[in-house]
Known about the structure:
binds fe (ii) ion; 21% helix; single chain
Amino acid sequence: MRGKPLSDMLGIELIDFDITRPCGPEEQAELRHLFCEHHFLLIRGQKLTDEDHDRFGKYFGPLSLPPKGADAGYVTNKEEQVVGRLGTGTDMLLWHADGAYGPHPGIGTSLWAKELTPGTTPTLFLNAVRALETLPPRLRARIGTLSAVHMRDTGIVRTAQPFRDSAQPQNVEAGLVRSYQHPIIYRPPHIDAQVLYVNELMTSHIAELPREEGEALLQELFNHLYADHNVYSHEWQLNDVIIWDNIALQHCRPKAVGSGQRHLRRLSLDGWNTEGGVMKWYATGMPRDLALMEGRDLAIA
Length: 301
Ligand SMILES: [Fe+2]
C-alpha cells in the first residue's frame, strides 16, 4: 500500500487503495499499522456506499453504536431534518479530543464527505505525540507527574468556549457533567507512544496545582500545542474518507467559511482490532450501559 504524506506533522493519503473492495486480514493489519504510524489516513476521489464506509471502519475496531434511529452520526449543515445529526459544523469548535472527559477516550474517528460543495470549512488537526516530543525540557520536567481534569457539561451546547468554567449547578445535580482525570503525559492503549494530553475545550485544571498556577502552565502548553506550524488543515473534497487517531491527534474547526453544503458521515471506534482479537476500549465518556440505552455517541461535532 502506497501513501503520500499530507504534511510534515501527520497523515498520509492512500493512493492505491480501493475502499470498495473488501480487504483480507493482512491488508487490514497494514491499514492499522499505517494508522498507528501516521495517525491519519485519507482516501480521496472514490465512489463508495455506506456499507463500504462501515466495512472500512471495522478494519480498525468495532464501531460505536450510531445515534438512535440512524445508520451513523452526521456532521451536516443540511437544512432538512437529518436523523443522527451530531452538529451542523457551522460553529467554531475549539481544539479537543473526543471523550477526553471520560475514562476511555475514543481511539479513532472516520468522516466521509458524502455531499460537499467546494470551499467549505476545513477541519484542523495537530499531532500531540509530536507536541510532547518537541516540548522544551523545562516544561516536560514540570508536567512529568502531573495530571489534568477534563470535563464536559452535556447539558449545554458549547463549542467555542472552554468547559473549564462552565458547569451549571443544575446540570451537576442532574448528573450531566462528566469529568475524568488523566496524566498529562498520557499513554494510549493502541500505540507505543506518549501524548501531550491537555486540550483547550475540555481541560478544566491541573489536579495537583493551585488554579492560577495550573492555568498559567496550561496556557504555556496550549501555546506550544497550537502553534501554526503544528497544524494540518484538511481541505475537504467530495468523497474524501478520513480516519484519524483521536488520542494522538486533536482536532478543531475554525469559524465557518462560505455557505457551501457540508454533509459528513461519521463513525467512531469502540475498541481496537489486534492480531490476537479485539481490545475492548469504550469510546464514550458516559457509563457503557447508559450509552447503550440511549444508543448515542457523545461526540462534539
Ligand atoms: Fe470532535
